[in-house]
Design brief:
This protein is mainly alpha-helical and 241 residues long. The chain is 74% helix and 3% strand. The protein is built from eleven helices and two strands. The protein has helices at residues 4-24, 29-55, 68-85, 87-101, 110-122, 125-137, 141-161, 169-181, 183-186, 192-215, 226-234, and strands at residues 56-59, 62-65. The chain has a two-stranded antiparallel ribbon. A hairpin with a 2-residue loop joins strand 1 (56-59) and strand 2. Helix 4 (87-101) packs across helix 5. The longest helix has 27 residues, at 29-55. It is globular. The relative contact order is 0.22.
């Protein structure tokens, strides 16, 4: 069944949110704050591992870094584009709308929880590659693995940030669903190099999400999202980054 992977991923996020909502009530406020920091540190190290995998390689007996120019150009230009468009404000407006429609107007953390969780589960190569595989061959295994990871992440985030995290299921459903539907069009574009570049930049954006979790919201990560598209475009530019 085409699209089953997206459904599994969406349901997993909802289940994780429900688990986190009820377990979060067991913790005091300072314990929830500590859990939030722990979640942020976990996200940081997951992101660092992904970024280093993309930037480091072994040359003879030495570990060599590369793709620095790719990172700088994609992040700088992508952030400028995102700031001009106002992607973060769009996420926040949608979050505010959800907060009112779901009867959570009194939840001050709702919008921040929604935006943070949405960025965490949407950014990355697994979502795109998994959705393409699901759309073309019906193989939902990648999205199933992602679903397990997202369930755990959203459960922890919901217990510390609040119920806004569970609504990250909506952008995941839309994002992965669209890619699955148009998989045959997207697939030729996603070469091995394009996926590698996307994974690298995506990992850095997830690192920024971790920074916000640990030190408070200091980076408008949503406004950096165009960097992911630029990373794919860069794969077709005949330059050594």
């Amino acid at each position: 069944m085409t699209g089953l992977g997206t459904i599994i991923n969406t349901v997993a996020i909802i289940v994780g949110g429900i688990i986190g909502h009820f377990t979060g009530k067991l913790f005091k406020q300072e314990q929830q704050a500590a859990l939030n920091k722990a979640c942020g540190i976990s996200v940081l190290f997951i992101a660092i591992a992904g970024a280093m995998q993309g930037m480091l390689h072994i040359d003879a007996d030495a570990v060599v870094s590369g793709k620095s120019m790719l990172v700088v150009l994609c992040l700088a230009i992508g952030t400028i584009i995102g700031e001009l468009i106002g992607i973060e404000k769009g996420f926040e407006r949608f979050g505010e709308w959800l907060k009112k429609k779901t009867g959570n107007s009194g939840d001050k953390q709702f919008v921040n929880a929604f935006v943070t969780a949405s960025l965490t589960v949407c950014i990355g190569a697994m979502a795109i590659v998994g959705a393409i595989q699901d759309g073309i061959t019906g193989d939902y295994s990648t999205l199933a693995v992602k679903a397990v990871l997202d369930l755990i992440i959203i459960a922890v985030m919901t217990s510390s940030l609040g119920k806004g995290c569970v609504f990250s299921a909506i952008p995941v459903l839309v994002f992965e669903g669209i890619i699955t539907l148009f998989a045959r069009l997207v697939s030729p574009v996603m070469t091995d190099m394009a996926i590698a570049y996307l994974s690298l930049i995506g990992s850095i954006l997830i690192f920024c999400v971790g920074v916000n979790l640990v030190w408070g919201k200091t980076i408008r990560v949503a406004n950096m999202l165009p960097a992911v598209i630029l990373a794919v475009i860069a794969a077709y530019i005949p330059l050594a980054f």
